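Dear all,

This email documents one entry for the complex benchmark we are building for the journal club exercise. For each entry we list the sequence lines for every component of the assembly. Then comes the predicted three-dimensional structure of the complex as a token string, followed by one or two observations. Please use this as the template for your own entries, and keep the labels exactly as they appear.
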Amino acid sequence: MAAASSLNLVNKVLIISTTEFHIVPLSESALLFSYGNTIDTIINEKIMALHDKLSTKSFPGFIESAPAYASLAVYYNPVFIKQQYPDVFTVFAFVQNIIESFAKEIDHTTSFKNKPIKTVPVYYKGEDLEWVASLHQLTTTEVIQLHSGVIYHVFMNGFLPGFAYMGTVNEKIITARKDKPRLMVAAGSVGIAGAQTGIYPTDSPGGWQIIGTTPLQLFNKTKKDPCLIKAGDQVQFFAIDKNEFDKLNEY
Amino acid sequence: MSIKILKPGICSTIQDLGRTGYRSLGIGPGGAMDFFAATTANYLAGNDEQQPVIEMHFPAATICFKSNSLISIAGANFDAHINEVPVEMYQPLFVEKNAVLSFKKNISGARVYLAIHKGMEVEKWLGSYSTHLKITAGGYKGRLLQKDDIISINTIAYEFNRKKIKISPAVLETLYKKQSAMRCIAGPQWHLLHADSEKRMLQSALTISNQSDRMGYRLTGENCYLQTTVELISAPVTVGTVQLLPDGQLIILMADHQTTGGYPNIATVIAADLPRLSQLPVNSQLHFQLVSLQHAEEMLLSIHQLLSEIKTGCQNFYEKH
């Protein structure tokens, strides 16, 4: 354990010292703050820290920000900003400066590892479970143990309202998306795509390898806070049987 | 006081200017495809820009007004008629109880907007009246309008005897003029385009395919390629984002786009050209024209300047009546 945590520390130092962010326009009313093309918890924590900072201390004309794996989109109202600050050369440069200074102020010491873990029950009997097991020469029980034996970091929401991209799965069960996406994947389906795992919040076409189903409702439009799992959360799955699934079923 | 849908049309929904504040949860903004027409329709009907409007495609809905109402129609020209008599767009229209609004012919454009004085009693979900079809929330029961739907309205209508207000055709001509160039700014992955593809994107005509809807316009044309293949992780996108699909074709993300995407983000159509793009029907041709970010900002500011002039004009008109 000690070795593992010191290794993490080394990684963290290396990443922070070698990774620089860049900011590019996404449109005339949005910019993209990005650390590049990396799936990494430390990078994502920095993205989430900037996202959280903007939600507490924003700037005039700020509309919202949306985090992804290694990038954050910042949406703003250029008309409002130009009215307030008629002398700015471009609104983009004005917002870019603000975001740069915010990024430099971010406190990297806050870790999401301290957040309470959300536990999600899964009835592991998905259509692709046996295929995933045979592909990796494992038993289905081993796949279940490997999938539920990890605390996942939620990197982002996207694709569908409330869809959470989580990772990373144990390397023994990393599985590419299906060649042909299914036309309909039921709400609650738990899937694997590469090193990512996720749950379909609503019925949707989709190409993830489905290994199980959760009885929990991931998205409830009638709630003020409609999403069960959000970017920055820590999630762990646990296996349940059919009886428990039926008892817990929220659909 | 209500309106009744006699015929629903193919894709008639309640929209406003979209839902903000929930992109981080994967909930996109949605909203009217042509923000200029939707906003103008509201101003002409004596509303502010926040009121819900009905967005219709062709064939559009046939609607009966169950009480005297004051309305306006903006956007596509679908040959609007009230009680079988042709009516003009882009001006306030007084309609009598039991009047029937219908659209006869697809003359130009792709989406028409109907605004009603003082708005409609429809569902506001997460701060917006826009219909979210996937979640079935917002607007009228979160779905497309259907035959016999009845929507409560708040109109206390009165007839105009004095001079009317109308948007000058010259203004609309500038905004919607027939030209194939869609101005765009370079996207985060523009520099990854192969030199030939870069040239092709800016010079060759692309056709809006019939697989286009409120989520996105799929374009068909010569294939585009990147200099090298890259596997990108998902990143945020926005309305107007032009993505390069694995088959070499391009897609422009429109109002109901997903919040994130993993395809190369090549360019973004500037906001000032989104009204014109939104009014291009399937099979129309377009080509991209690269402009500076500064130009994009200036164009957006000028379109908002125009909208604020229209707003003031309409407010002055209503104050006098």
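Observations: DSSP finds seven helices and 13 strands in chain A. The CA atoms of residues 128 and 210 of chain A lie 5 Å apart.
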